[in-house]
Queue: 2 jobs
Job 1
Amino acid sequence: MSIVFVISAPSGAGKSTLVERLRQRDSNLDFATSVTTRPPRDREIDGEAYCFVSADRFKAMIDRDELMEWAEVFGHLYGTPTAAVKRAFAKGKDLLLDIDVQGAALLLKKLPDAVTIFVLPPSRAALEQRLRDRCSDDEAAISKRLGEASREVAVCGAYDHIVINEDVEDAVSRLHGILIAERSRRANMQPRIAPILQSFGIQQEQDPEVNS
Ligand code: 5GP
């Protein structure tokens, strides 16, 4: 059974780099390509990180109930196509969704077993520095992103796991550790447990009292 991992972070926390590195490290992880009305940035290819669509096309997808979740982020619409999620499930892979906090809350209503991970910057000052270092935003855009970041980090307590991105290598290792730990949960190990127990002549896994 596929596990859905949802990863959220404020803009500038370094999530894209972490997601890219995690995908390189973990071959059992699939990625659902979101649709967005945001225009492509430099070197972004349609169909890779995003499928770039018009507002009309996005609205038609909402009307046809083709999106698992969607939200407006920084004035643009972003959504996860249900078909992309189904494709990952059909491949038997786990799925990583890079979505904002509003989308994560909506997704959990449809997929309550999804595992949620929030990436925090080491501090507000560090986030501000990173946004300035990117040099891609003017002052107004930076303060807008910082304001939005405060609203986003305020809900990190609703997530299952927190990763602080102080050092990229460490953060990627922690993310990978979360993936491995979640896959090791007994419910997720069931298909592998049954044949091992059968080799011991035990037909069904028993639920022993831990302290008995
Ligand atoms: P960016 O435009 O910088 O790539 O992404 C802006 C924000 O949109 C990020 O917080 C990212 O996680 C979020 N985002 C990307 N795809 C989706 C999606 O399919 N649904 C939702 N709700 N948010 C998304």
Note: Residues 34, 38, 69, 71, 73, 78-80, 98-100, 102-103 surround guanosine-5'-monophosphate (CB under 6 Å).
Job 2
Amino acid sequence: MTEEIHCIGCGALIQTENKDEMGYTPVSALNKGIESGEVYCQRCFRLRHYNDIYDVAMSDDDFLRLLNSIGQTDSLIVYVVDIFDFNGSLISGLHRFVGDNPVLLVGNKVDILPKSLKKGKLTQWMRERAHEAGLHPIDIVLTSAKKKNAMFDLLDEIEKYRKGRDVYVVGVTNVGKSTLINAIISATAGVDNVITTSQFPGTTLDKIEIPFEDGSLLIDTPGIIHRHQMAHYLGKKDLKLTSPTKEIKPKVYQLNAGQTLFLGGLARFDYIQGAKTAFVVYVSNELYLHRTKLETATDFYKTHVGELLKPPAKDEVTDFPELVRFEYSIKEPTDLVFAGLGWITVKDPGVVAGWAPKGVDVVIRKALI
Ligand code: GDP
């Protein structure tokens, strides 16, 4: 039996198989580490040498255990969501786990949404969606970790609410939690030393602790992967195409009932019943949209998926799940959300259907814009 080795930085069990999970170390680094008697996982190594954090995933059970343990502390919870994929960012049951601890809700990737969207409207909308999920955040901050904007606003809010307590940063993977923490560190390092990056590594198993000046800690926790998201079914190249990196330019389509819109080969929107009206599509600017007749759409897809309708690329079509249909009757302005891909705003009453690969949800919510 091989001996179990733990990272001396965070205590995670060292493994060399899965890059995105806790304790990953490349074999070469592991061998060097064993020689020198100091084995760090890649995450702690990068943190020590480059002040760079990246997110790792943990199993659902471990994640629940972690949330539970946070509920038993007296702390401020900073909950990071991706505004572009709000539904996909939700951690179900979070409100039960946090107990009486205050939650500061951070809407990240604000740079992706159209600039015309007013901040006040966006935060109000987030508050309503949070309430629906049973969460009552003490405040909401909008950030773009990528552009490093609003980092001082965020730190001010954290200071205001933590009242000397530790701060836990939670979020599912891919919401930009690591980018955000790195941006916080770089915003504070050398400025007023709110966070003393030089003394990291008081880390404990599966968490990374960054000390504030008063000795309390900013604690970064691993995320969980939401398997119903589109990202799970796409290769790296396709993912680049479908994850917006800059401001989305909404595309408006005037559709009659009986028309279909394909979002590449990844999803499909049918307008089934209602008067001729405008539909606004919010997806990555790079994604190809194709309008066709509803009647022949299923055959059209079969013929063109992987070629005209892509992603998925031709060689990925056989592994790509079939599209599954969700029908909705619309009464008020509504977004039809394709988890992780974007949404289509339906302003007028009517009947529509959204199709997504089996396993990915199509849900409706009150229109954001
Ligand atoms: P984590 O898994 O939550 O730690 O997420 P990462 O920090 O690794 O970010 C996931 C992806 O989102 C990366 O491709 C980032 O470049 C991107 N990202 C993070 N923050 C932002 C942001 O504020 N705006 C945009 N457009 N992309 C972001």
Note: The longest helix spans residues 119-132.
